[in-house]
Amino acid sequence: MNESDNPLLHIQDLSVAFTTRHGQVAVLEKVNMSLQRGETLAVVGESGSGKSVTAFAALGLLDAAGRITNGRVLFDGRDMMQLSQSELRSLRGRELAMIFQNPRTALNPIRKVGHQIEDVLAAHGKQSAKERKEAAIAQLEAVKITDPARRYDAYPYELSGGMCQRVMIALALACSPRLLIADEPTTGLDVTTQVVIMDLIHELAAANGMATLLITHDLGLAADYCSRVAVMHAGQVLEDAPVANLFRAARHPYTARLMAATPQPGISLAQLASIPGQLPDLRQPQPPCRFSTRCERRQPRCDEPGLSLVATPTDNQHLIACRNPL
């Protein structure tokens, strides 16, 4: 088997439930997605669709109330669910890393940012204290922070939102991981800073041959920076396709609705079409397709069990979970 036939990350039939005061809530249902070496995959969908939970489950970072009820997560052929906590800690930061949504809450507010980068290096390397400091300053320089030697001694509260995001990127890339998960890395940033941050992530990923999983609700970012897109709704992957294919001819009604609700050049706000209904209440039993209650193309067969993500008849790279596609 060629290396290209073996995905770096393979999520297979992943289901996750959370224990709440209302009982067990199935937040993910048979999620399937894969990421090749060096590839950039966008996971898009409305807030609450399960994008971040998928990433946390893959990294073994679920909240204590959450548990994986079905499926597997393979990283370079290794089953993440069979690894001990010490083995997971060794992998996280060294071979796979994550940029969290809000850098101001993810960073330690009472520890200098340079020392926080050194903490990652100390956990996964054998450098001396002097070498770790030099490496931390080099990381700050790599993410284009001006005067990195001085910023090394800064606390997060002394930095802007964009600078804190750069520090988060430096932390994530300190050990040159093979997989980076970027969870809404531009949230709360102005448009110009968003572009700078995404260009930086894209540039560093290309330079290091790193695979990137970008979690976002912004289809524009997915189109500009990713090679493939997986569309999630209410804990299910409904469509997965190369970027060009998806934007040329979306097949799932939900994907089409997402695109119609996304601002685009030349289209006024009045021309944007909202998605009918709302995300389903996952505390209640769900139909096979969790979008069916919002879908104008629903048919009786949509409620038949056994719905799965399969290739379209005309393109084996374009996967869809729909019984009445566009």
Task: Give the arrangement of secondary structure elements.
Blueprint: E1 9-20, E2 23-35, E3 40-44, H1 51-59, E4 66-75, E5 78-79, H2 85-91, E6 96-99, H3 103-106, H4 113-124, H5 129-142, H6 148-151, H7 161-173, E7 179-183, H8 191-208, E8 211-216, H9 219-225, E9 228-233, E10 236-242, H10 243-248, H11 253-260, E11 310-312, E12 315-320
Parallel strand pairs: 3-8, 3-9, 6-7, 7-8
Antiparallel strand pairs: 1-2, 1-4, 4-5, 9-10, 10-12, 11-12
Helix pairs in contact: 4-5, 5-7, 7-8
Account of the 3D structure:
With 326 residues, the protein is an alpha/beta fold. 31% of the residues lie in helices and 24% in strands. It contains 11 helices and 12 strands. The mean pLDDT is 94.
Element pattern in H and E? EEEHEEHEHHHHHEHEHEEHHEE
How confident is the prediction overall: mean pLDDT? 94
Q: What is the β-strand count?
A: 12
Distance between the termini: 35 Å
Query: Order of strands across the widest beta sheet?
Result: 6-7-8-3-9-10-12-11
What structural category characterises the helix and strand content?
A: alpha/beta
Give the quaternary arrangement of the chains: single chain
Low-pLDDT residue spans:
none
Radius of gyration: 20 Å
Query: Helical element count?
Result: 11
Largest sheet geometry: 8 strands, mixed
Fraction in beta strands? 15-25%
Sum up the overall morphology in one term: globular
